[in-house]
Amino acid sequence: MADLNLWKKRLGQVPESVWEQIELETLVLADNDLTEVSERIGGLRKLRMLDLGHNQLTTVPASIGNLESLTDFLYLHDNRLASLPASLAQLTKLRYLNLSENAFAELPECVCGMAGLIELRASDNELSALPDSIGRLENLREFHLRNNRLTTLPEAIGELRELRQIDLRGNPLMHLPETIARLPKLDKLDLRWVPALTAPDWIGVLEARGCIVYR
Length: 215
Known about the structure:
The chain is an all-beta fold. The protein has a single domain (3-214), classed as Ribonuclease Inhibitor (Leucine-rich repeat, LRR (right-handed beta-alpha superhelix)), CATH 3.80.10.10. It is 3% helix and 14% strand. The chain has 1 helix and 10 strands. It has a 10-stranded parallel β-sheet with strand order 1-2-3-4-5-6-7-8-9-10. The longest helix has 6 residues, at 203-208. It is elongated, with a radius of gyration of 18 Å.
C-alpha cells in the first residue's frame, strides 16, 4: 500500500508534488494549518483513506467526490466547515466519516447519499435539526451527535435498521420519536446532559430488551 503521512508538518499549503503521487492509497494531511486544498486531489483515484482533520478549512474540493476508491475513512473534523459540495454524495462506498468540531448548522444533504456509511461523527457542531433523508443511511451502526442544538430527531431515524449506538449527549432535546424504540439492533442510547427531556415511556421497552440507556 502506498502511504503518505504528512501529519503536523506545519505545511501551510500542500506541496504540488503530493498530487502527482497517483498511486497513493492513504494520505494524511492533518494538523498543518491548511486553509485550502487543491482540486487536484481528485486525481488520487486510488485513495482509500484521507485525513484533512485539525486544519482551518472553510471548504473542501468538489473533486473529492471523484475518489471512487475512498472506502475506509474520511476525516474532516476540527476545521471551519459549514457546508460540503454536493459531489460528495458520490462516495457511496465510504464507511467512516468524521465531521465533528466544525460549524455545520445543518447536516449536508450529500452525507445522506453516502449509503455505505457505518459510522458517522458529527459532534460539536451547531446542528438544530436532521433531514428526513437521514433514513437513507441503511447501513449506519454508530451515529455520534454530542453537543449540538438538536431539540428532536426526525421520525426517519427509525429507518436506520442497523443502528447500534446513538450519542445525543449535550443536546437541548425536548422530544424523541417513538420510532427509536423500533430500532431492532440498538444497544446504546446516550441521553446524558439532556436536562429538559422527560424520558418517554418507550425507553423502558428498550431497556427491557437489553439496550443500555445512559441518562
